[in-house]
Amino acid sequence: MDTKFARRTERIGRTTCSYWRAGKCNRNPCRFVHIETPSPPAACGYGNTAYSYGKKPHSSSENTPKYGSKKALLRDNGDRGDATRVAKAFKKSSPRICKYWINNNCVHGEQCLYLHSWFRGDGFSTVTKLQEHKKVITGIALPVGSDKLYSGSTDGTVRIWDCHTGQCAKVINLGAEVTSLISEGSWIFVGLQNAVKAWNIQTMSEFTLDGPKGRVRAMTVGNNTLFAGAEDGVIFAWRGSSKANSPFELVASLTGHTKAVVCLAVGCKMLYSGSMDQSIKVWDMDTLQCTMTLNDHTDVVTSLICWDQYLLSSSSDRTIKVWACIEAGSLEVIYTHTEENMWH
């Protein structure tokens, strides 16, 4: 056996194979031991600093980042302080998202050199394009704990996409325009003309919630209540029911808007609704009564977001407004951004 290789094997052989722990190691022989070993003391723990960052067989990427080559790490192994510094630089220098984390099988956890988040790094990159809808996409939902993405479109279909392959796994033809789509827990809610479809993805049960007049353009869930804004300006509210024929019961119809409700948001125990009538209404979640109307926009209110103690609204009047609660209890605009370049 080559002396250099033997020394290297002996050196890292004290480290337990993390893939073996997970029952996934397919290397024979493996450079790491397949037994549980006690953690080495911190004073001589090279395996926990530079060398563990430089190992190649179980790295989270096929290509080693250019700022953290194995040769550089091994060269600094004689000085623990330098090795630790290089290891940290190596970790910070990698902007890649861990491909094993994407598939939910990265065994390195917080010690992984690669990003375990879609929302970090220097920017965004396209993973894949889902291009099978024929018309406008009106809603996208990824239920918690599911590996399926749901999308609805005015082409009359809901498509279910496999998040691992990026392929369409199923097409549900509803025969009517899908005008909104959201998820909550195990439920998928689909807004249609004069109705809301409710699907439970665990039990595969399906229910139709009647009541809305016209297209259901917006939906949200808050305080165990499903809210759906319709084309006639009315917001319908359903809560859980013990009735055998439907797990949902219509508990209220919120009236006040004079035109279609196009966006809804929940925050600070309030429901906020934006409408084509250019107004935002604030509803108490407990009483389901309107507590105030905001009229600062001069065109359709297109979207609403609750962020911390603030309400953000956008409008076809080319503005984005930030609202904050003042001492009197009402909401007041504290900042307005005007977008000069908008598509027509």
Automatic annotation (TrEMBL):
Pfam families cross-referenced by the UniProt entry: WD40
Record has Zinc as a keyword: yes
WD repeats: 130-171, 254-293, 294-323
Swiss-Prot/TrEMBL keywords: Metal-binding, Repeat, WD repeat, Zinc, Zinc-finger
Domain of life: Eukaryota
Zinc finger (C3H1-type): 11-37, 92-119
Residues covered by the C3H1-type domain: 11-37, 92-119
Keyword Repeat applies: yes
GO molecular function: zinc ion binding
Disordered: region residues: 54-80
PANTHER family referenced in this protein's UniProt entry, alphabetically: PTHR44489, ZINC FINGER CCCH DOMAIN-CONTAINING PROTEIN 59-RELATED
The protein, known as: C3H1-type domain-containing protein
Source organism of the structure: Glycine max (Soybean)
